[in-house]
Amino acid sequence: MGRSLCPARRGSLPPIAATGQPAPGAAEQPLPEETLLGIVREVVGHLASFDRPSASAGERRAADWIAARLEVEGCRARVEEERAHGTYWWPLGLLTAAAGLAGWRAGRLGRALVGALTAAAVADDISGGGLWFRRLLPRHAAWNVVAECGDLQAPRTLVLVAHHDAAHWSLLFHPRLPELFGERFPGLLERSNTTPPVMFPVFGGPLLVALSGISGSRALRRAATVLALGAAAVMAEIGSRSVVPGANDNLSGVATLVGVARALRERPVAGLRVLLVSTGSEESFMEGMQGFARRHFPSLPRERTHIVCVDTVGSERLMELEGEGMLVMRDYPAAFKDLLSDCAAAAGVELVRGLRFRNATDGLIALRRGYPAAMIGSITRYKAPANYHWPSDTAANLDDATVVRAIRLCEQVARTLAADPDAGR
After folding, report:
1. What share of the chain in percent tops pLDDT 90?
2. pTM assigned to the model
3. Nearest to 166 by CA among 67, 77, 70, 61
4. 86 contacts: CB under 8 Å, gap ≥ 6
5. What pLDDT, on a 0 to 100 scale, did the predictor assign at position 422?
6. Ranges of H-type helices in 276-422
7. Cα–Cα distance measured from residue 85 to residue 83, given in angstroms and rounded to the nearest whole number
8. Is 80 exceeded by the pLDDT of residue 381?
9. In this structure, are residues 143 and 60 in contact, taking their beta carbons and an 8 Å threshold?
């Protein structure tokens, strides 16, 4: 499961104004907008200045900086080492290539067996499962940050989860695609509430290869082979691209954690422990969160823990997902989603509801384990995250005001749970 490490490289922190204890009476007021905007710009600006691919030295550098930065805000922070493969294009590319080659060259029995095996492995890999195929691939160190604040002796815990690694870009994620759809089909965009299932073809190729072996259909065999090899080519294209700055996805979430730490230091809460978690290797399908779950979930009882994933909150409009899943759609618990809506209203924050994503975030790992969980993100008017997995995901293109709203929402969730620990159940 890895080892716990003390934060390192504190000297790499940029200058931060001394804060000390809040002045008498100041703790009764929410943090000014200018203070939170300064935190967002500082955190995102620094971390976006260097590459942070999954399971890399850049990911470790970011983790060390975040841990030190959270300690400045009075948290007890540490960096934890986990093990991760660090990509998704290699596992999925190998599996779909194997299925495609079987479709091309193998007999009926071979297609049925290889297709079924690779389809099962793809389904496990994209759904937050055990990642059993990855055990055959090289593994590297990944780095999670775990910080504690609030009432450290409280029996109940709120976990806020973001991630600090960054994705590769790809033509598959071109930002003009949702824009073109929205501009040409505004009615369909208005009625749609679920993002396109981009991983369906990745699973469908191997599945159809298996079915072609079972049925003996030549037409199905040809279609399955093209689909599987096409998916493998897309994975190769993704792997060949560079890492994006990742300001929105997901340094906006990291900045939210630091902003909440500042808010809870200035106005402490009693009766609730808050864990601020920034995972590594999220972009390789939540491997860092899987490590956090193995290490910490046994000591986080479901009946006394709430988990909120904060991912990509730097687009125009803050939103709360109804559900997510690349293959199987899983809805978040209704009571906790309603609690977040109530908290948004109390904080004066607009929160869009009704959307489901055919993606997967760290929140999916908590959801699969049965925790009261929720996921907050953000969207443009085209119902998609801004600059998603694209080189334009820079600090300059971040909607800082939306990140501030995410901070205020998460702070309100913490205060609400501190006042009523059974809320949202």
Report:
1. 91
2. 0.92
3. 61
4. 53, 54, 55, 56, 139, 140, 142, 281, 284, 287
5. 78
6. 287-296, 334-347, 362-368, 400-419
7. 7
8. yes
9. yes
